[in-house]
Amino acid sequence: QTSVATFFAWRLDTQWADFFWNICNQDNRDPSPTAMHLFDDAVMNMLRLIAIATRDSSQSRYNDEFVKLRAADQRNTYQTYEENGWLDRAFSETVLMLFEGWSAGQTGFALKLPDDRVFDEKAFFKTAIAEPLSISYPQIVEFVAYIEFLRAHGDSQPQAFQEWMRVVVNLAVNTTYVRPEDVRRSINGLRELIPHAVQILEYIASTPGPVTGFNGAQASEEVQKAKLILAEHNWRGLIEQAESHLYFRGQIDFLLERSEALRLFDDSEDAQSVDHASAQLAFQRSFDMAQKTFTPRGLASFKDFLWERALLTLGNYFLRNGSNWSFLVNGATEQGSWKRLLGGARDARNILFKLWDQLDAEQPLEPQLQRIITSAHPEVPWQKLLIETPEAFNYCSRRQMRFVNDDVQDIYLLARERMSGAHAELNTYALHARLQREGGAALQPLSLPYYESVSGEADEPYLYFHHEHAGREIHLYVSYKQGQFLLQIGNTELQGREALQAQLCQAIGFQPRPEYLTAECPLGEIDEALLKVAALLKAN
After folding, report:
1. DSSP 8-class letter at 334
2. Is the pLDDT at 461 greater than 50, yes or no?
3. Is the pLDDT of residue 462 over 50?
């Protein structure tokens, strides 16, 4: 009888060696020492991933072991594994199972899943042997699920295996992982599910609170999708097609809600009018619109922020991001993201649905969005300004604004994310952008230079006008605070021009202050005030 150690050594010199060599050296049949070194690294890198995946998540030392195995400076050697007690039964059995199974193919990698739609075994393997520390927390959870199924149920039920991996991948990619403890929690949840893995849909559809250790909303969504797939066979194709969208990545609760699919399990009287066929048609139509709206990387590209501005005509869809409000980024893990809106920000999501209701997915979207913007009459002043000012969206490179003390009169556009960095004020920025678009002929002899952003909170951002005649200059500064524009002209620039100063005071309401001649102007009267200043300068 051959010992496990002897068998491992023999396989690493024969079948397993051939398998790793062929995968590692697929594109370059290189027998050099460098290639041999890469081969050795590949084997050890895969062993590192298996060691991570086979740690006992019920043990108190799990988090420490996880961190050690993931550490970039950890020596990746058999001696290290032996010293740390990682060459245990679970590790050895898993290595044997995986290496024997993967290397059993006649031409390379013997796949255990029917296809790579939900979990690409070969792609995962190639990443693991080249850069094991680049494997993300969700991918580790997926790999554990892959291993646990094979250990518990073998590879004779590929369709059941695929269904299991579909559910787990949906759960893992839509759960936030920050610490090893988060991974541990999910793995504990997986190991509760694994006895039922060959009938995972039936189990989660019929068992109260069946899924633990993952994002609760996603767990609930998987239960609802399981019920739909089991209730009517046409749901499977629709659901799997939507789940495969690379931005949604399994999180399609918004499509289920919009199609009223979940009402199929509601006992209320008004829910009786919903049937599978009508809900499936609504689901498909919603998905068609969603595909026109979102690419695999996030929101589709629309010129001049037409999408965001059209949404604002229907309500405030912004999401809180710390001290700021975000008009949304594509990064799925960020607080102010389109993915978060789709995943559960109900009020904001309903605004998206309202916009979809006004659009025809069969026609180009940009002309439709422009018509919605042009015909809108928003009542909220700040929303009206943003809708009219695409330049304001462009200024915010991180798509964030600051509502100071939640006062909608004091809104700052952030060039990045903080008030300590460059920022502009919405009312003055929108005024500057509009006047630039109009060309400035009506305000001659005033010229309009660039907008002055500021950094820090000691000073207010502003725009200014410039006038020069006969070697004398006048600068008119315009800032905004608490519902009023503030107009200022430096006293030194008005010395010797007492008549002009008197006219400014009489016609516009300027008041002498220690450094500036100053006037306050209500929001709706700024154009008239600027025209009066321009006329007085022209006359003088």
Report:
1. S
2. yes
3. yes
- Give the Cα separation of 424 and 74 in Å (integer): 48
Q: Write the DSSP symbol of residue 494.
A: G
E strands present in 242-379? 294-295, 298-299, 319-321, 324-326
Helix pair 4-13, 89-102: axis angle to 10 deg: 30
Please write the tens of the pLDDT for every residue from 379-390.
999 999 999 999
User: Concatenated DSSP letters for 144-208?
Assistant: HHHHHHHHHHTTS-HHHHHHHHHHHHHHHHTS---SHHHHHHHHHHHHHHGGGGGGHHHHHHHSS
Q: Which residue has the tokens 């604004």?
A: 401
Do the beta carbons of residue 437 and residue 399 sit within 8 Å? no
Q: Is the model's pTM score more than 0.70?
A: yes
- Listed in sequence order, the DSSP H helices in 358-481 are 365-375, 381-388, 390-395, 426-438
Q: How far apart are CA 496 and CA 23, in angstroms?
A: 86
Tokens of 235: 């749901």
Element (H, E) at 403: strand 400-403
Q: Which amino acid is at 211?
A: V
- Provide, rounded to the nearest whole percent, the portion of the chain with pLDDT above 90: 80
